[in-house]
Design brief:
There is one protein chain. By secondary structure, the chain is of the alpha+beta class. The protein folds into 2 domains: 88 residues, SH3 type barrels (Roll); 289 residues, Fumarylacetoacetase-like, C-terminal domain (Fumarylacetoacetate hydrolase, domain 2, Alpha-Beta Complex). It has 9 helices and 27 strands. The strands form 6 sheets. Strands 1, 2, 3, 4, 5, 6, 7, 8, 13, 14, 16, 17 and 22 form a 13-stranded mixed sheet that branches. Strands 9, 20, 21, 25, 26 and 27 form a 6-stranded mixed sheet that branches. It has a two-stranded antiparallel sheet with strand order 10-11. The termini are far apart.
Length: 387
Amino acid sequence: MTVVGYGAFRPPGRHQRLGVLTDDGLVLDLSELAGLDLPWPELLLQPTLDALLTAGPAVWREVHGWLAELFADPAPLAPYRRPVGGVIPALSFTVADYVDFFACEQHAVNAARIFRPEDPDPLPPSWRHQPMGYHGRAGTVVASGTEIRRPHGQRGPGDVGPTRMLDFEAELGYVLGGPASILGEPVTLAEAAERVFGVVLLNDWSARDVQFFESRPLGPLLGKAFATSVSTWVTPLDRLAAARIPPPPREPEPPEHLLGPADRGLDLTLSVSVNGEVIAVPPAAGLYWTPGQLAAHLSSGGAVLRPGDLLGSGTLSGPDREQRGCLLELTWHGREPLALADGAEIGYLRDGDEVLITASAPGVGGGRQPLGEVRGRVLPAVGAGSA
């Protein structure tokens, strides 16, 4: 039995509490174990992961070890386990800050080729020298299953209305923990990597027409601010030991604060479905910048790292069409519509479309282990008649 992740949930008619989801589709209700030998009850008998995140890596390892012993003989736990379909999942931690990075070289190259096909060097000058990203809105990070309202924005000069180019972005989200760092004092790569509690799947919904108009010269604002969905189950990094891999070759060598043994990536494979049909299988193994590097670079200018910080990897994409992690790339900005099994051809998402992102990783001892899922259905814009 494999731990898929920690998360928050509500049994019908009861208060929110913490649980552990396993790959057999059952949730261990930690609040029901209060009478047993429960380590760190002040952390685990909580409605969210906030206290556990703050406690730091030494405590995380102790809790992981206790769980491993507990699940070695799961039979006595049967009275405390519930089918995942019978509970209401919730956002499992308070998002402190949200930063979305641009860490996949293939995605960066594809996006540049779509909009600047004549440019001989598709990457921005600084791209291979340091991680690039933008600060998002923590307040619009939502739990998987939350329905997504089509947003309004300015699509061009004097052209205001609901986006016509609603997109998903298949990403990894790294959840940070440990006590807050000190303002103005950078965190080393090794320390930053230790702060990564776990991984969620992340869909950074994007209004492409709004984003493109407003992002010259600064980064996105309304085009990305309306919603970011995350899986409700956080897979601890310790549970992904078999998925840890070296980074890809880099040229030039990264700066000193981004070098060291903690520079390790994750060999995960995502699957993206629209209305139940798989349309993409983006890989994470080729990410140019790794989780520890993102956190270390963020702090290198003096920014504070806080428990509950969420760092998005940016869209995951591979060299083949079926590995592209967003419709911008899959349809080459609508120029090559995607044919669905129901006969429809789409450039971007339609009202009523449901996007589901799942993932798996190599398991310790062989096989594959699942992560959580992130799901969202598109609702019509308020006042959509003004399109």
